[in-house]
Design goal:
636 residues; alpha+beta; Rossmann fold; Alpha-Beta Plaits; 7-stranded mixed beta sheet; globular; disordered N terminus
């Protein structure tokens, strides 16, 4: 979870002593939903209603990648004041690859607002985040968003949502949830769906429902006991500041803290980390502004400087002896190997080239991103990065690229584990595909080739919804393939479902053929015109290429064709019939980092530099590569 920071502002009026502070007037709530169901837009309206000036859409999405892609990547909190109550509201990601961001903030909140698209209904990630919230015992408020659109199914979805709650929990108190209807874009939420009445009060009904239905940060019965106990805060996120050093953010579980107080850090086992220190800064985020304070109390979400704690560790008073328990996070499902760039073009674009630089950057990343894990690779120069999906690791690669790193990235490999009987099991995912009815046969065919099983089929308005269970191994590259095959008609979403036995022999890698360069130099239009007849190009005229670099996709599947994209037209003093022939080339296919990651085959790596992405073979020399491939076939 990451706070949203604007320039600091010291507001003395927010200072509140322990005697005046009432934790029963505090509500900590997270907004959870599937991707693109309207969480961040709803946050904009809540900010405006509680007195914050919002000048841009999606104000909480402050990250560079979030603004570019239009999705939330990091969880972010802010403090709102509504009447006599204080609300700490957390905006969470909706994409499955960032589900860990939702899991780790659940220990900070006491309830959730589940946002559901009134047309699409509950999706794969809706089920995932709701199951985590219910398992943690968090009460929910259901909001059907986008009911201003024609063809919404809000009333029909009420039964579907109730069935989902019943399937995920048998706790009757959690099955008693209020329902609201909303249009986040128009800025209203209401208990009624009738047009003309629902728009009158804006988002006030939602704020009132949060106050009424979500439990207070500290109950009346525990108020005195929680405030008198020694200070304890579970670290949820860390940031760094050039002047303050490390800043940790989390919820104060019990006690109070003031600037200058002594603190220590405990790990999950209760062992002290480092030496005692003092709090040098305390602040929270109100609206979009940082507010410095002198003290904080139980139930509040705050940021403090003065210690070197890591995520999931406990910052506490010196007399405290036990750490604050945290909610466990689901393990990663795929692994990719990061290493230094060893291509013939290495060192031309970036300024961070060595394996030590790459490893130091990755260790810094996993300090705050608890859903990523690192493990040693077979090569001492490389390191394995384990994560939730192609998008999550792709954004990490893109971030490092923009910071000046040059590196190579291997294709994703699925992480297997052992079940209770000692069998190797791999993750399966629930895949939801929305498609025009006439194209559903294409989707079913693609999924059957990837060992996916169709478990549900239904009509959603004019579209068909197909729900599959498929092994994660088979889904690598699926989104890219189905989007290309349907020309962007399909909407694909997936989330982790369960572990199961997978026959690895049934998966032989991607079936795409490749055009591989046999020359080093700059591409020419004359050469590319002939190469284009063999397939689709990835490079244009005048681009640098080298032996072993993949310059295009071969029209023949599962075949590797050596081509020369640098051939020059020989000049003679004899005029030929093709001398004045004009070079007309189809624009090359350009792919993003995530698309390349999904597209790579087992014998390839992605070369990443600040200015270019190049797909190449692990073994560049064609003779050596042919010999190795032949020996692999003999082994099989």
């Amino acid at each position: 979870m990451k706070p949203v920071c604007a320039p600091s502002a010291s507001i003395a009026s927010r200072f509140m002593s322990a005697k005046a502070y009432d934790p029963t007037m505090v509500r900590n709530v997270a907004i959870i939903a599937h991707v693109d169901h309207g969480k961040t837009t709803l946050m904009d309206k809540l900010l405006e209603k509680c007195g914050t000036t919002v000048t841009t859409e999606r104000a909480m999405d402050s990250n560079e990648h979030e603004k570019e892609r239009g999705i939330t990547i990091m969880s972010k909190y802010t403090r709102l004041h509504y009447g006599n109550h204080t609300l700490h509201v957390v905006d969470t990601p909706g994409h499955a690859d960032f589900g860990g961001e939702v899991e780790r903030i659940l220990s900070m909140v006491d309830g959730v607002v589940l946002l559901v698209d009134a047309s699409e209904g509950p999706m794969s990630q809706t089920k995932f985040v709701l199951s985590k919230a219910l398992n943690a015992g968090k009460k929910a408020i259901v909001v059907f968003n986008k009911v201003d659109r024609e063809g919404h199914r809000a009333e029909e979805l009420e039964t579907e949502i109730f069935d989902l709650f019943c399937a995920l929990s048998d706790n009757e108190s959690l099955l008693d949830y209020p329902i609201l209807y909303a249009s986040a874009r128009q800025g209203w939420a209401s208990h009624t769906i009738k047009a003309g009445e629902r728009e009158k009060l804006g988002v006030i009904p939602l704020l009132d429902t949060i106050i009424k239905h979500i439990p207070p940060a500290v109950s009346k019965e525990q108020k005195d006991e929680k405030l008198k106990r020694p200070f304890g805060l579970s670290v949820n996120t860390i940031n760094s500041d050039n002047h303050l050093g490390r800043i940790v953010t989390g919820k104060v579980e019990h006690g109070s803290i003031r600037i200058g107080d002594k603190i220590k850090v405990l790990n999950a086992k209760g062992d002290q980390q480092g030496v005692e220190s003092r709090v040098t800064k305390l602040f929270y985020l109100e609206g979009l502004t940082r507010v410095d304070v002198e003290e904080a109390h139980a139930g509040q979400i705050v940021s403090l400087a003065g210690c070197s704690a890591n995520v999931s560790e406990t910052v506490c008073a010196p007399e405290a002896t036990s750490p604050i328990p945290t909610i466990p996070i689901s393990p990663p499902v795929i692994s990719m190997t990061f290493g230094p760039n060893d291509s013939p073009l290495s060192g031309r674009d970036g300024n961070k080239l060595t394996s030590n630089m790459i490893k130091d950057r990755l260790y810094k990343e996993v300090e705050n991103n608890v859903t990523l894990q690192l493990s040693p690779a077979s090569d001492s120069e490389s390191i394995n990065v384990n994560g939730r999906g192609e998008l999550q690791i792709g954004i990490l690669v893109e971030t490092m690229r923009r910071e000046g790193f040059e590196l190579t990235v291997s294709p994703p490999n699925v992480i297997s584990t052992k079940d209770e009987q000692g069998k190797n099991v791999e993750p399966y995912e629930e895949v939801v595909v929305d498609i025009d009815p006439e194209l559903q046969g294409m989707v079913i065919d693609q999924m059957s080739n990837r060992k996916g099983n169709l478990i549900e089929f239904k009509d959603i308005g004019a579209r068909a919804r197909l729900i599959f269970h498929a092994p994660s191994r088979g889904l690598i590259g699926f989104r890219h393939d189905i989007m290309s095959a349907t020309r962007g008609n399909a909407t694909v979403n997936s989330a982790f479902s369960h572990y199961g036995v997978v026959n690895v022999q049934e998966f032989s890698g991607l079936q795409k053929g490749k055009l591989v360069s046999t020359e080093t130099g700059k591409t020419t239009g004359y050469a590319l015109m002939m190469v284009e007849e063999r397939g689709q190009l990835f490079v244009g005229v005048g681009e640098e290429t080298y032996v072993g670099m993949v310059v295009g996709e071969c029209a023949r599947s599962a075949s590797e064709l050596d081509v020369n994209p640098c051939r020059l037209k020989k000049l003679t003093n004899v005029r030929s019939t093709g001398a004045e022939e004009k070079v007309n080339l189809t624009p090359p296919k350009k792919m993003t980092t995530e698309e390349f990651i999904a597209y790579m085959d087992e014998d390839e790596v992605l070369e990443v530099t600040p200015t270019a992405l190049r797909l190449r073979k692990k073994i560049l020399d064609p003779t050596t590569r042919a010999r190795v491939n032949k020996s692999k076939k003999l082994v099989k």
